[in-house]
């Protein structure tokens, strides 16, 4: 008995699978294709689409074979393996400022310069501005989404509002929220997340941080959260909250989404990436609209949230070359068209909207097109591009300020507290 | 009779609270998307699509086989190594064992999250990334298991040990013929725990592997959950139910062992 | 004579070490070494990849006790332990005792009571989030049926810690149930039989025989639950992310956030060392007070 179990144990220990690519050498398939690892953090339905695209790439390429691998927290992984041979040749990463200074990436700008077949101008202008730091593109923008106002068309009709002309300003949203609120239905909500606060600055072309939101080479040293602009945003949320028209569903986005999908929430802010799934699953008609602006302000644009494709510098020449081929393929108009049409991300390549299937999708579903309109109507500037910060703990401070606000704490003390703690982190 | 009635009522109420989540997961796995959107308790119609879809999306069988290999190895390893160590702490009177025991216990006080980075570096240096042993060896012995068995060995009757020593029974002989057989209930509990905690572990396997050939089922489950857009819950729950089946089998076998402890317990007096 | 005694000691020592060797080899590599590294990191600035940049002395420790966020974490952690440990042990003892009775179908109930262990993090997170949802959640719906207004389980700082504790108790019941059931089953039937002859009733047997004989396991369960409660992480990560307003920011969540989200390994390690010392202190007290009362046969 004992011997048997020990035997099983030894065998179990001995079974080893071949470790690919951990010796600093290029690995190839039998027919001579260069094999590269690609890490991504996409899951659920979107991962299905991505895997399909990678499969198609491998089919059509004679020289490169991409090996996709799901990772939950790529940044955490790369903090440890980024500088080792275990790093993947290509990875999807969302934190531009962090990766740009990480020291283990090859800037995409360098690849573009050497390659006549790819022009920076192929990319959407607003996307390019948003993803460049100090005019330089370090990672290739890939899955980009924007924030929109989502609303329940049927509830608009029931409340006597016109779904064809959704609220565009703070006071219009406020008025609509009060009309739509009808216990247990809440008129309006925003998930507790820093990105929405940033976006409410961006829509009115206001900076959240000095040094041009940290976009022009200098790190920010102070925040403009505690300003008339910040106060107006917080007061707007506070008014609706005090009036009982604002639903607080906490930090978990899915909780806010569940309130919307089950018909207990009439309007809310969310990312355009959810559009595809709502089209497929909602029982009621919904529509999207651009983010609202404060009264009297011009709508200037929205931040893009999303990730870039990065090339690891811990790869051989061949692998970098192969990785670049893969990246170019992923942002080609055909692939972007398919990607955006099936997910709700906005295409990073301008030409993608003119070809099938995205062309038809935009004609058929206005909800999708409004996201793209929000993107192309964005006036590129450091303010609309949004903050670029290396200190990730700032997000937490702003989220906490948001939490305190919806718990009914005094606006000016919440903003002052947030300003102090954020500035402390910035100057540390 | 009255006592029996009360017991059954208590058992049923408790069972409902303990089992409701699993029943709910089971129910969700048959739901349609609109049931989910409306926060339904029961599916409007029975559909097996979610199971089909879960199996299409991830290499389910490969993941299950990997998990099974890893969890079984961890379980067997823990039974052997933890019992050997606990035996030494209780039955072999050597100098310094108290210090060693405290040292062992102290390792329980460091949170797992603090060990990740150093252990990751160790695994890179060993060249063990993407291997089964990176998922088996670190948990093949746990201070929890040693401590649990030590507590049990301490309750074994002294007279038995004295008698065995009188007969000239060697340490290893006593371990094999008395200590282990008389600990069936505790070993059963340890096996259940070792298997299931290995089966359910997620973060460590995720960090250690990037190759589906060695990855366990929990990573597959996470791949079904969508973090950036709304999740397709029926598929996730279908995956969770599939992943639950092997653990229920282990629970069944383990509980049988725990009950057998009763029989051996009555013989030992 | 002395020499003989000495050789015997050496022999015993060698034997003891032989049994412990595999355990300590593995613990050294995967636990002692990381613990040592954590201590080292707590006095250093650490770069990505766990590379020590420079020795900074007590900098991180001084920053810790200057940080209201960390002091809050300690307070919240202790509260959390108080909310969870006693209730978990009492409830799981209750389950083990009623499932241990010789009844038809008791096996079925034992299976049900332990089955919760089989639910993975991904599944239980989804279920718990749904149960706690502010307007649609099952718990609020049930309360609403009795006319109790909706409770902001996870979104109000007054309730969040309690809600996470509730989830933790529920998640811990199965493990404790199995351990205690194992303990109960190990108790010799003879003892009960002889006491029945003496005419002892149910409650007398429970308090005079069962609980004293179960005390080694109870002691074990108490220590394990204390440590687990101090190290709770998964449920917080899923349910509240430490919020709202840090109401559920337990020490381990704070460690996770500092090291994996912000890359402040040194600062996070200092927190881990403090957590280590706190749990060590509490555990030692339990051993001092508890082990004396434990009844070993």
* Net shape of chain A: globular
Class of the largest domain in chain A in CATH?
Alpha Beta
Main β-sheet of chain A: number of strands, strand sense, barrel status? 10 strands, mixed
In order across it, which strands form the biggest sheet of chain C? 1-2
- Fraction of helical residues of chain A: 40-55%
Low-confidence stretches of chain A: 1-23
Work out the largest interface and the residue count of each chain: B-C, 103 and 100 residues
Helix run count of chain A:
20
* Oligomer kind: heterotrimer
Overall number of strands of chain A: 12
The overall average pLDDT of chain C, rounded, is 85
Largest sheet descriptor of chain C: 2 strands, antiparallel
Q: What name does the CATH topology of chain C carry? A: MetI-like fold
Q: How many discrete structural domains of chain C?
A: 1
How much β-strand is present in the residues of chain C? under 5%
Which value, in Å, is the CA radius of gyration of chain C?
A: 24 Å
* Number of strand segments of chain C: 2
State the CATH architecture of the largest domain in chain A. 3-Layer(aba) Sandwich
Q: Summary?
A:
Chain A has 428 residues and is an alpha+beta fold. Chain A contains 20 helices and twelve strands.
What does this structure look like?
The complex is a heterotrimer of chains A (about 425), B (about 270) and C (about 300). Chain A has helices at about 1-15, 45-60, 75-80, 95-100, 110-115, 125-130, 155-160, 170-180, 195-200, 210-215, 230-240, 255-260, 275-280, 315-330, 335-345, 360-365, 365-375, 380-385, 395-405, 410-425; strands spanning about 25-30, 35-40, 65-70, 90-95, 105, 130-135, 135, 140-150, 185-190, 265-270, 285-290, 305-310. With about 425 residues, chain A is of the alpha+beta class. Chain A folds into two domains: about 30-145 and about 305-350, Periplasmic binding protein-like II (D-Maltodextrin-Binding Protein, domain 2); about 145-305 and about 365-425, Periplasmic binding protein-like II (D-Maltodextrin-Binding Protein, domain 2, 3-Layer(aba) Sandwich). In chain A, the strands form two sheets. In chain A, strands 1, 2, 3, 4, 5, 8, 9, 10, 11 and 12 form a ten-stranded mixed beta sheet that branches. Chain A has a two-stranded antiparallel sheet with strand order 6-7. In chain A, strand 6 (about 130-135) and strand 7 (about 135) form a beta hairpin. Chain A starts with a helix and ends with a helix. By secondary structure, chain B is an all-alpha fold. Chain B has one domain (about 45-270): MetI-like (MetI-like fold, Orthogonal Bundle). Chain B is about 75% helix and about 0% strand. Chain B contains 14 helices and no strands. Chain B has helices at about 1-30, 35, 50-55, 60-90, 95-105, 110-125, 135, 145-155, 160-165, 170-180, 185-200, 205-210, 215-225, 235-269. In chain B, helix 4 crosses helix 13 and helix 13 packs antiparallel against helix 14. Chain B is globular, with a radius of gyration of 23 Å. By secondary structure, chain C is mainly alpha-helical. Chain C contains twelve helices and two strands. In chain C, helix 3 (about 70-100) packs antiparallel against helix 4 (about 105-115), helix 7 (about 160-185) crosses helix 9 and helix 11 (about 250-260) packs antiparallel against helix 12 (about 265-295). The chains are: A alpha+beta (about 425), B mainly alpha (about 270), C mainly alpha (about 300). Chains in contact: A-B, A-C, B-C. Chains B and C meet through helix 1, helix 4, helix 5, helix 6 and helix 8 of B and helix 1, helix 3, helix 4, helix 5 and helix 7 of C.
């Amino acid at each position: 008995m004992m011997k048997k179990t020990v035997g099983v144990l030894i065998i179990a220990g001995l079974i080893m699978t071949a470790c690919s690519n951990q010796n600093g050498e290029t690995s190839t398939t039998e027919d001579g294709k260069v094999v590269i690892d690609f890490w991504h953090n996409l899951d659920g339905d979107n991962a299905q689409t991505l895997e399909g695209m990678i499969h198609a790439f491998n089919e059509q390429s004679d020289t490169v074979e991409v090996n996709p691998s799901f990772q939950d927290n790529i940044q955490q992984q790369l903090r440890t393996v980024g500088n080792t041979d275990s790093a993947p040749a290509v990875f999807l990463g969302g934190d531009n400022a962090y990766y740009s200074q990480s020291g283990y990436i090859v800037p995409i700008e360098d690849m573009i310069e050497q390659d006549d077949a790819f022009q920076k101008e192929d990319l959407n202008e607003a996307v390019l501005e948003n993803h460049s730091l100090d005019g330089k593109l370090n990672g290739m923008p890939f899955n980009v989404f924007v924030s929109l106002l989502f609303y329940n068309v049927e509830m608009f009709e029931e409340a006597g509002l016109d779904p064809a002309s959704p609220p565009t300003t703070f006071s219009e949203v406020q008025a609509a929220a009060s009309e739509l609120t009808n216990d247990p239905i809440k008129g309006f909500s925003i998930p507790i997340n820093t990105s929405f606060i940033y976006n409410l600055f961006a829509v009115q072309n206001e900076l959240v941080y000095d040094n041009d939101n940290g976009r022009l080479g200098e790190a920010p040293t102070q925040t403009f959260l505690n300003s008339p602009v910040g106060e107006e945003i917080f007061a707007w949320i506070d008014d609706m909250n005090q009036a009982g028209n604002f639903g607080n569903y906490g930090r978990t986005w899915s909780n806010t989404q569940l309130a919307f999908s089950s018909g207990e929430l009439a309007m809310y802010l969310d990312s355009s990436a959810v559009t595809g799934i709502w089209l497929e699953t909602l029982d009621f008609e919904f529509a999207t609209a651009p983010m609202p602006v404060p009264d009297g302000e011009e709508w200037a644009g929205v931040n893009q949230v999303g990730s870039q494709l990065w090339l690891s510098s811990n790869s051989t020449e061949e692998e970098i070359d192969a990785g670049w081929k893969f990246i170019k393929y992923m942002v080609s108009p055909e692939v972007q068209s398919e990607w955006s049409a099936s997910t709700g991300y906005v295409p990073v390549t301008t030409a993608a909207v003119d070809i099938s299937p995205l062309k038809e999708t935009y004609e058929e579903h206005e909800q999708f097109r409004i996201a793209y309109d929000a993107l192309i109507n964005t006036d590129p500037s450091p303010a609309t591009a949004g903050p670029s910060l290396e200190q990730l703990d700032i997000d937490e401070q702003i989220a906490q300020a948001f939490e305190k606000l919806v718990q009914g704490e005094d606006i000016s003390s919440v903003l002052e507290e947030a300003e102090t703690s954020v500035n402390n982190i910035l100057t540390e | 009779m009255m006592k029996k009635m009360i017991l059954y009522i208590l058992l049923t109420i408790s069972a409902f609270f303990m089992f409701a989540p699993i029943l709910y997961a089971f129910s969700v796995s048959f739901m349609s998307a609109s049931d989910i959107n409306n926060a339904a308790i029961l599916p409007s119609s029975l559909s097996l699509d979610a199971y089909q879809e879960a199996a299409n999306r991830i290499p389910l069988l490969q993941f299950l086989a990997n998990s099974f290999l890893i969890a079984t190895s961890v379980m067997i390893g823990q039974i052997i190594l933890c019992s050997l160590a606990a035996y030494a702490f209780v039955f072999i009177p050597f100098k310094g064992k108290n210090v060693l025991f405290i040292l062992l216990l102290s390792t329980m006080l460091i949170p797992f999250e603090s060990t990740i980075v150093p252990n990751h570096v160790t695994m890179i240096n060993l060249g063990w990334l993407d291997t089964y042993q990176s998922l088996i060896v670190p948990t093949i012995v746990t201070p929890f298991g040693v401590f649990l068995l030590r507590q049990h060995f301490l309750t074994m009757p002294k007279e038995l040990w004295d008698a065995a020593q009188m007969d000239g029974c060697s340490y290893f002989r006593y371990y094999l013929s008395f200590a282990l057989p008389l600990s069936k209930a505790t070993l059963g509990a340890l096996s259940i725990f070792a298997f299931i905690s290995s089966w359910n572990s997620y973060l460590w396997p995720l960090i250690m592997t990037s190759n589906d050939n060695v990855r366990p089922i929990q990573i597959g489950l996470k791949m079904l959950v969508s973090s950036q857009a709304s999740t397709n819950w029926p598929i996730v729950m279908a995956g969770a139910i599939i992943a639950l089946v092997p653990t229920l089998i282990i629970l069944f076998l383990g509980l049988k062992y725990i009950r057998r402890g009763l029989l051996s317990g009555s013989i030992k007096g | 004579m002395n020499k003989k005694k000495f050789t015997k000691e050496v022999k015993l020592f060698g034997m003891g070490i032989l049994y412990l060797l595999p355990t300590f080899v593995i613990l050294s590599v995967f636990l002692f070494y990381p613990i040592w590294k954590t201590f080292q990191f707590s006095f250093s600035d650490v770069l990505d990849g766990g590379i020590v940049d420079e020795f900074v002395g007590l900098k991180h420790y001084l920053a810790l006790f200057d940080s209201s966020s960390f002091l809050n974490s300690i307070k919240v952690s202790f509260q959390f332990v108080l909310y969870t440990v006693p209730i978990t042990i009492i409830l799981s003892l209750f389950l083990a005792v009623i499932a241990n009775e010789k009844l038809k179908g008791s096996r079925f109930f034992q299976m049900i009571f332990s089955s919760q262990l089989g639910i993975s993090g991904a599944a239980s997170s989804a279920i718990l989030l749904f149960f706690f949802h502010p307007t649609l959640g099952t718990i609020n719906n049930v309360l609403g049926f009795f006319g109790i207004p909706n409770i902001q389980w996870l979104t109000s700082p007054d309730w969040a810690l309690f809600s996470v504790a509730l989830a933790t108790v529920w998640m811990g019941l199965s493990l404790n149930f199995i351990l205690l059931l194992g303990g109960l089953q190990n108790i010799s039937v003879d003892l009960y039989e002889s006491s029945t002859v003496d005419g002892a009733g149910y409650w007398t047997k429970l308090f005079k025989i069962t609980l004293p004989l179960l005390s080694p396991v109870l002691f074990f369960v108490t220590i394990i639950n204390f440590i687990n409660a101090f190290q709770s992480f998964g449920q917080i990560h899923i349910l509240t992310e430490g919020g709202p307003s840090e109401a559920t920011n337990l020490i381990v969540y704070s460690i996770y956030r500092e090291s994996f989200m912000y890359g402040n390994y040194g600062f996070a390690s200092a927190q881990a060392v403090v957590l280590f010392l706190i749990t060590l202190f509490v555990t030692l007290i339990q051993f001092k007070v508890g082990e004396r009362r434990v009844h070993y046969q």
